[in-house]
């Protein structure tokens, strides 16, 4: 092993001290245990004159063994033997300080060294001479000197740790009973950087020695100090410090030296856990966790050791330990958590705000709902709200939301307490508070006031918020249906130029938040959607199922057709289709259908297969969404529809919204197209428990919408009047479920003019038709109608009435030539009489 910088520095100093010994100064001591003191002194001096300490201290090959000798004539040597790869600062400086502080009248008199190229160990002394002479072999020493006392250790790992020396009465005031441990503490105290700390611990490992309890505590303190994690008091770290460290990322990403130090200390603590005092073991675990190091082996070992002693520990320690286990993702045993809860419940009102918050935080992250503890903590928090910081209040809310426990009084009081604390420096805490309210589905007047206050802070200080906080706030406002257009506008302007700092979830939340706020399609929204689509297409592998579903749902809601994004989602979805949860599968199918994006036939076939397989696992909403989507994509099968009806038989129609009840009728109409005869169509019907009310709801909605006319419809009606073509504006299908915009019987053919305004097309060029309009046209064509679609962008491109008349004439003639996709099965559906020219004015 090469000699390190610290070892060279200390070795030179050590040999200088030995030069004083060999020069005959009063503190020199005997070397050999069987010879006279004068002979030993002369031998020591002669060796000093023929050797150079400086040369040996710079050697990287000759191991040395420091020997501490007792004073007095010919006393037995107290030999500390070790096969050293290098002389370290800890061992040498510790022995030197031990000689000065503890061993009054004793000294370091000799060092036994074994050369890498020599068969026998050598005794080395040092003086101030720069001359270098060969050292005498150990065999040349008088018999009975060191040969009988030297214990050679070839394998440092197998050697047992050194036991503390027994000191005499005159030595009781010394700083330590172990020179080696004392040296380690001193060496650790002198470390100025993480690299120094790592070097000291690695040198200790090279010696084959274990790190003492005191050494672990000092090292942990140094590690946290160098990483910028401050202690609340000596050996105590805040439970919220552990959480903050976890959020900043893995320790290895922040500091490789720190991670190596943590690994050494974790391994040492794991080996020594059974011998350590429980309080010290808990302190080591706390410190490592505060630094962001969570060693599962250490935690598993310590769990059984600490559990019987939890009742005797401080409540602050117990709370922090629970958080440490939670941050490590390792759930302790039921008995451990119950013991911790009992300790905390013993006198919870005396706990400070940090302990109360840490208690909730730990149990929430572990997903362990202890009703008695939660109630007691809630009461304690309510009685001392003024002592809680913004961060602590936010985590109290987060803990209850994470456990799904509603406590209205606590939430209301915390909401009021948060309002005076609004500030950009608490951006993360404000985000956590708002997110928690959304997770609890708690929305009242005070919640609205809080959301508005947070929005104002975000608008003026958007750059002070982290990307994750911005995206979570967008999700929160969308989830609580609390639109704040100025906040969304500020976020969109900021995010367009900073999309690279948002992760997959952040990109999805921005789009989803804008969609739920029903933002108008202006330049800011269009730029954001184009930018997010391009960014997400390149990083699609980062998107989980939920992120993809939220992202695509946002694009579908805003009717923004981004072909590159849709292709990327299709490929990514195809590769991970088997891992998609049923709900996310349903949302993705629905988004494809709403945007009228048809996947490749191979993927469509697999989507149909997995949908059929997962239908029993879906709730009513997801099942209806998925079935409507797969029908629009033309992937519906008879077997799938029958399975769907079997699932509907056990559902209550009250579970479905008006929109989903109308989708149920759409599904039935799409299923009817699969039948080749009226008998087959009659068999493909929804179950009675949902069909009756769904049909009534759909018919009522169609009747209401039939009286509404858009400006584009009025313009087309005026054009038809000018052309002398009669039409009807209140035509409804036989089942009363579809209202035709403009219907006519033209040259004996039923024509349906579908006025495709902007709502029925994508909001961006080239104005792709949406799935709902395509479905209407398909159903009408299946029933014998010839559909003429008049897109708004085409109509608006013709400036004059003459051009519009010419356009409509061409479309009517084309419709006569191109018949429907199939002839109607029923002759009674949508039959209109020939309209006489003298009658059409009545409808106008």
TrEMBL record:
One of its GO terms (molecular function) is RNA binding. Residues 751-810 form the RAP domain. It comes from the Eukaryota. Residues 159-182 are annotated as: Disordered. GO terms for cellular component: mitochondrial matrix; ribonucleoprotein granule. One of its GO terms (biological process) is mitochondrial RNA processing. InterPro entries: FAST_kinase, RAP, RESC6_dom. Transmembrane segments: none annotated. This is RAP domain-containing protein. It comes from Tetraselmis chuii. The lineage of its organism: Eukaryota, Viridiplantae, Chlorophyta, core chlorophytes, Chlorodendrophyceae.
């Amino acid at each position: 092993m090469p000699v390190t910088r610290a070892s060279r520095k200390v070795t030179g100093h050590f040999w200088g001290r030995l030069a004083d010994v060999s020069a005959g100064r009063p503190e020199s001591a005997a070397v050999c245990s069987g010879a006279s003191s004068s002979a030993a002194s002369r031998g020591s001096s002669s060796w000093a004159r023929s050797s150079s300490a400086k040369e040996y201290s710079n050697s990287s090959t000759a191991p040395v063994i420091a020997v501490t000798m007792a004073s007095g004539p010919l006393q037995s040597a107290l030999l500390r033997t070790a096969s050293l790869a290098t002389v370290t600062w800890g061992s040498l400086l510790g022995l030197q300080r031990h000689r000065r502080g503890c061993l009054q009248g004793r000294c370091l008199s000799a060092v036994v060294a074994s050369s890498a190229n020599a068969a026998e160990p050598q005794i080395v002394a040092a003086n101030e001479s720069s001359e270098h002479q060969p050292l005498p072999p150990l065999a040349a020493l008088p018999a009975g000197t060191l040969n009988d006392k030297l214990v050679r250790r070839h394998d440092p790992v197998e050697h047992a740790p050194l036991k503390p020396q027994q000191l005499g009465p005159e030595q009781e005031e010394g700083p330590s009973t172990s020179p080696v441990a004392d040296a380690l503490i001193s060496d650790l105290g002198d470390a100025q950087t993480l690299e120094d700390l790592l070097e000291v611990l690695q040198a200790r490992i090279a010696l084959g020695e274990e790190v003492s309890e005191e050494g672990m505590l000092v090292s942990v303190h140094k590690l946290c100090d160098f990483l910028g994690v401050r202690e609340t008091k000596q050996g105590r770290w805040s439970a919220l410090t552990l959480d903050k460290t976890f959020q900043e990322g893995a320790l290895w990403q922040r500091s490789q030296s720190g991670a190596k130090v943590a690994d050494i200390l974790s391994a040492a603590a794991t080996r020594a856990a059974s011998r350590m005092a429980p309080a010290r073991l808990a302190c080591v675990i706390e410190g490592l966790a505060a630094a962001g190091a969570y060693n599962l082996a250490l935690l598993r070992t310590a769990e059984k050791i600490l559990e019987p002693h939890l009742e005797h520990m401080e409540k602050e320690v117990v709370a922090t330990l629970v958080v440490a286990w939670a941050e490590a993702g390792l759930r302790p045993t039921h008995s451990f958590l119950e013991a911790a809860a009992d300790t905390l419940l013993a006198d919870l009102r005396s706990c400070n705000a940090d302990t109360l918050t840490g208690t909730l935080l730990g149990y929430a992250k572990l997903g362990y709902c202890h009703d008695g503890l939660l109630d007691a903590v809630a009461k304690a928090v309510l009685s001392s709200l003024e002592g809680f910081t913004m961060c602590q209040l936010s985590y109290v809310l987060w803990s209850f939301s994470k456990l799904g426990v509603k406590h209205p009084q606590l939430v209301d009081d915390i909401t009021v307490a948060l309002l005076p604390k609004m500030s950009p420096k608490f951006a993360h805490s404000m985000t956590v508070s708002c997110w928690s309210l959304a997770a609890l589905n708690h929305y009242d007047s005070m919640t609205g006031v809080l959301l508005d206050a947070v929005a104002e802070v975000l608008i003026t200080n958007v750059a002070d918020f982290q990307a994750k906080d911005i995206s979570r706030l967008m999700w929160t406002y969308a989830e609580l249906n609390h639109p704040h257009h100025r906040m969304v506008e500020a976020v969109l302007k900021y995010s367009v130029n900073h999309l690279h700092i948002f992760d997959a979830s952040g990109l999805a939340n921005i789009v989803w938040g804008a969609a739920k706020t029903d933002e108008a399609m202006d330049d800011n929204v269009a730029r954001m959607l184009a930018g997010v689509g391009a960014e997400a297409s390149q990083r699609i592998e980062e998107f989980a199922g939920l992120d993809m579903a939220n992202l695509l749902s946002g694009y579908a809601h805003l009717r923004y057709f981004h072909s590159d994004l849709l292709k990327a989602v299709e490929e990514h979805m195809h590769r991970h289709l088997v891992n998609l949860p049923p709900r996310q599968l349903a949302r993705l199918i629905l988004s494809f259908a709403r945007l009228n994006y048809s996947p490749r036939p191979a993927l469509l076939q697999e989507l149909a297969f997995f949908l059929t397989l997962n239908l029993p696992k879906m709730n009513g909403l997801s099942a209806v969404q998925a079935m409507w989507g797969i029908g629009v994509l033309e992937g519906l099968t008879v077997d799938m529809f029958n399975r769907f009806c079997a699932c509907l038989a056990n559902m209550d129609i009250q579970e479905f919204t008006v929109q989903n009840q109308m989708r149920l009728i759409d599904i039935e109409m799409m299923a009817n197209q699969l039948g080749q005869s009226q008998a087959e169509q009659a068999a493909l019907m929804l179950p009675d428990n949902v069909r009756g009310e769904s049909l009534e709801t759909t018919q009522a909605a169609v009747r209401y919408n039939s009286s509404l006319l858009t400006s584009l419809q009025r313009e087309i009606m005026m054009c038809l009047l000018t052309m002398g073509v009669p039409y009807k504006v209140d035509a409804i299908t036989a089942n009363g479920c579809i209202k035709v915009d403009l219907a006519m019987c033209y040259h004996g053919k039923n024509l349906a003019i579908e006025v495709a305004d902007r709502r029925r097309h994508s909001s961006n060029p080239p104005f792709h038709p949406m799935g709902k309009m395509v479905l209407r046209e398909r159903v009408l064509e299946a029933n014998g109608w010839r559909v003429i679609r008049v897109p708004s962008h085409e109509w608006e491109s013709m400036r004059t009435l003459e051009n519009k008349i010419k356009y409509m004439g061409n479309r009517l003639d084309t419709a006569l030539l191109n018949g429907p996709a199939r002839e109607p099965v029923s002759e009674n559906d949508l039959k209109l009489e020939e309209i006489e020219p003298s009658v059409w004015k009545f409808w106008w």
